[in-house]
Amino acid sequence: MIIDEFEWQCESQRLEEVTKELIKQAYEVGDLKQALRTDTLETQRALWEDTGSVSIINGLDQIADFMQSIQLIKEQKAGHEFNKKLEEQYKRMLLSPYFGRIDFLEEGEALAEKCYIGIANLISDDYNFLIYDWRAPISSMFYDYEIGDASYTCPEGLISGKLTMKRQYKIENGKIEYMFDSNLKIDDEILQSLLGKSSDSKMKAIVTTIQREQNKVIRNDSYKNLIVQGPAGSGKTSIALHRIAYLLYKYRNKITSKNIVIFSPNNIFNEYISNVLPQLGEENMCQTTFKDYMHEALGNEFQKEGYCEMMEYIFNAKHESSYLIRIDNIRFKSSMQFVDVLKGFVAHLETVNKNFKDIIIRNQLVISANEIHELYSKDYIRLPLKKKLQKIQERLLFLLEPYEKKMVEEKIAELEESGDYVDSREIIERSKVIVKDEMSPITYEIDKMTRFNLVDSYKDFYKDLEIFLERANVKYDDKKITQIKNYTLENLRAGRLDYEDQIAILYLKNATGDRPKTSEIQYIIIDEAQDYTPLQYEIFHQLFGQAHKTILGDIDQSINPFMNVGDYRNITQIFEKDNTCVLNLTKSYRSTMEITQFARGILNNKVTEGYVKRRGEEPKVIGCLDKTSIRESILEDIKVCRNRGYKSIGIITKTIGEAEEVYDALKDSVNVKKIVSDEDEYVNDIVIISAYLAKGLEFDVVMIYNAGQEMYSGDEDRLLLYTACTRALHVLCIYYIGSLSPLLMSEY
Ligand SMILES: Nc1ncnc2c1ncn2[C@@H]1O[C@H](COP(=O)(O)OP(=O)(O)OP(=O)(O)O)[C@@H](O)[C@H]1O
Question: Where is ATP bound in this sequence (predicted)?
Fold first, then answer.
């Protein structure tokens, strides 16, 4: 709706007033920050000069003063940091104080309240809300309602009324660029103009255009665990980050960013998303990857296969004789049945008859085997296996102490009497060594009875695998299981741990009680959730059972055909069913309509809705004679795209091996970077990257390197190719040699 001149004047005047208030408050905060800094320096100086060196000789008062000053410095520093952040927020707000307005007429009131919505609250000295934070309860109506009946929930309960107006603004550098009233949802026009831009170097906040279905996820508080399924580009990662910002606002007195952890697919992605929360005025949460956590937990004892190594094997080693066995191995260990079988094994470990023995010293019974068994099966029954054995060991060593002490005393007396030693210290040391020697068979026995070796135990599991399969009622193919057993045992004996075995060993480690304390983590976010196996979800549950979980993924983007979640029902089986809810997102935002339709064709999914109708050019599918001609086409297309102003170009290969090859072929002709490890840095330029490392990222232009039939032939490659194509915002070029992949031939 067009806005008349009078309205423009009113809005411009209001913006001026708000800007003045922002400047005033920014100065106040700046002064306060400076004062706190001066105070801190002064306290530090006083502490140094007045207190001098702290010593107990100067009396307890001095120590008390010292501690008080330290506490004061801490508080002053925290105050300074807080005000520094506020000052930065004011600076950001001055550029664009708000982006939306709703006029809300509450039931029973005569006048509608004008609510301006921005990235943070601005409250005047007389307690008027000049701007509402987008996360405030009242602001939810901006995302949820059109003109007409509306309501929101706040601590006082449900507030109902009517939205009489909804306005959107684009304010840049403190000036209104445009504004318009929208009767409908957050207008497609603004959304399309945002989406039509060239991609930034990092993911950006979408606070001005959050959609209703996205808002539902961001603010959902009804369930402990949320599973969010959404197609490529539906904003899952964006939502996850905005949800974190929302939680930090809503529970600001209870949690900080340190209480939230996000599991990302890799460190490239971690870097890519690292700007969103700071843009929203919040500190980043803890970011990690499953692989990093797992490798740290398992230590360096074994030769561990990396995630990329496994992916390269899956795509490159089809000709190897053991390939099919390895694939069966991955499939089996990624199945829900494997979780049940492994759980059964853990339960068995608890009950297995431990070979406890009487502890006897010099014919004296210290503790009988039965008594040790009592400790194991009664006193420490509630502890997990490893902890239980540790406790027993501590207890036995404690019981030995008086015997040992007495034996040392006797030995000292004996040596003194012998007259062979003159130095009493030497006599003591010598006596201790002799007694230790005498005791060593007993301590060895204790160690043996209470030792728990994770990998040995994992080997035992395979030795009797059929028994555990039967106990868990799992039907199995004898031949396959024998092959899996032999394959795994051979690897373990050689000190090699395949990626899928690392997950299983980590599970065992946690299940037997050797796991880190994670009670401070109250929220966890798992992005790209489709690529975790049920066993990995068990591990998340083991580690963060107490935490609220937001799990976001797209089953159609399972980049590993053999190792994925399979079905979200597997997750609900693991977490508390009645506290877990699955929400679906239905719309894609990233790509043009043409690219989205083309990509959905790969899934044999003809769609006419479920995406923003942003128009672009049809994807180009270019047949090439050989690799040299692909190279030439790519170089030509890079030139064209650069001239059209596109910044980021992703040349997507199937594997890292292929990415290296393409990099070598292109590097002398154009300035390209390669991303060939999950530790590499994200760059917003021309990059060569394998499809499985590109998941979650996006590029203005995507060039799929060689989508010939040889590369993407069967169903197993379908989702990988789909994921690669859906990384494109504006342009998609597909090159191939020989015949085109049949996956790209569907009528979309
Ligand atoms: N409401 C929105 N307003 C503006 N842009 C949006 C909105 N939702 C999503 N986007 C944009 O769409 C793109 C895709 O978002 P995002 O990466 O969060 O989606 P995703 O579902 O995690 O994607 P994928 O599963 O394909 O990795 C991003 O550029 C994001 O900024």
Answer: 230-237
